[in-house]
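EI: anyone free to look at a 421-residue chain?
SC: sure, send it
EI:
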Amino acid sequence: MDFEHSRRSSLKKIAAGLGAAALGRSGLSLAQQDTLKVAAVYPLSGVLAQQGNYILQGAKVAAEQFNRSGGVMGKKVELVIRDDKASPAEAALVAREIFGSGIKFIVGGVLTAPSMAIVNLLAENDGVFVLGGSSLMAMTHESFNPRAFRSSPNALMNLYALAKAMAMNHPDVTRWGGIASDNQFSTDNYKLFMAGIRKFYKDIARKNVEILDPVLAPFPATDFKVQIAKFMASPLEGFFMGVVGSDFSTFMAQAKPQGLYNKVKVFADFGNGIGAGRVLGANMPKEFWSATPWYPDPKNGSAGTKQLIKDYQAMTGDKALPDSGAFYGYAGMTAMLSAIRNAKSLEPPVVRVALERLTLELPNGAFAFRKEDHGAITNVEAIKMGSKSGDPGWEVKKVVTVQGADVMEPPAPGQKFVIEG
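SC: here you go
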C-alpha cells in the first residue's frame, strides 16, 4: 500500500516538473540552506568500530570528490556524522535526531538490527536511506521498504561468488564446515554459503560435497578454544569463517597455536576483504579467500580505483591501501549524491525515483539499483590471500571477479526469502 502510494506520488511530482517539486515545504526549507547535509551513520565505537570507521572514510572521500567538482545543486556537501554504536536503540535515537533537524537523507547501515531501526522510521519522517554494508536478504524481501536502497551486494551475492571461487580453485576440497555467531543472520549466511558450495561443486567440479553443521559461538566472544577443539576433531577440509569484527581477529589468533591452520586446506571468509590481511599480517594462513565488492588494486585497477586510493590516502595520511570496507561508504554516498544531483530536487520522493533510475560507473564496475527491490546490481570479487616472507607478512595472490547479475536472486519485494538447497 505504502509502496504504491509513494510511487504514484513520485511520478506525479516528476510530471509536474522538478522545479515545482522543489517548492514543497520540505524542499524549500532545504533549498534555502548553503550546504547539502547528508547524515552518515555507522558503528564508530565498540566491536565494529574499525569497520565502521573504514566505511566512514569512504563516504568522506565521495563527499569531497563532489565538493571538488562544485558540490550538488551548487551546494557544498556536509556530512553529519553519527555513531550508532552497533545498537538498534542508539541507531533509532540518532535517526530521530537527524530527522528532527530537518535532514532527510541518510547513508549508513553495517549491522542489520541498527539498519532496520532506521528503516522503520523512514515512512513517518519521509526519509531516504542508502545502506552500504548490511547484506540481510530480508531487506529486499519481506522487510522491503521503498525508501531504503542497498548499495552493497546482498548476502547471497557475496556468498555464492565466494562458493563459486571455491569450486573453481579448490575442487578437491569436498568436506566443508565452519563457525557462525549464534544469531539468525550469521547462521543464515552459513546456510547460504553451503547452498552455493553444493550448487557450484556440482555445476563446475562435478562433485558432491559433505556439509557439516556449523559450530556456534556467542556474539561477541572473547574465547574460541572450545569451538576450535571441535574443529580439530572433525573431518572438515574447507572452513567457512562466519564471525566478524573483533571476533574474527580473536578466533584467528587462537586458531593457529591450536593447529587449525595445519588442518584446514582453505579458509573462506564472509567479507573482510583485504581487511583480513591488515588484521592478520604475518598470521595469515596459506590459503585464505574473502568476498569483497572491491579490491583496491593500485596497479591494474580502474581509473576510479586509482583515484579512490589516492584521495583516501591523502585524506587519512595512511599510505597503506584502503580497506575494502571503504568502498561501502564510497558507493553509498556516491549513489545518494548522484541521485540528488540528477533529480535537481531535494524532495525525498523525487530523489527516490532518481535512485531507481541511477546508473553509475564505480571503481568496481557498472552499478545500478534494481528497480523492483532496490538491491544493488554490482560486481563481487573473491580474493585469495596468503602468507609471504617479510613485511607485511601477507599478499593478494589471485582475484576472481563475479558479475553481480549472475549471482543475484530474482526480485521478490514483500515476499519471505527462503534459502534453497
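EI: Residues 1-28 have pLDDT under 50 and may be disordered.
SC: 👍
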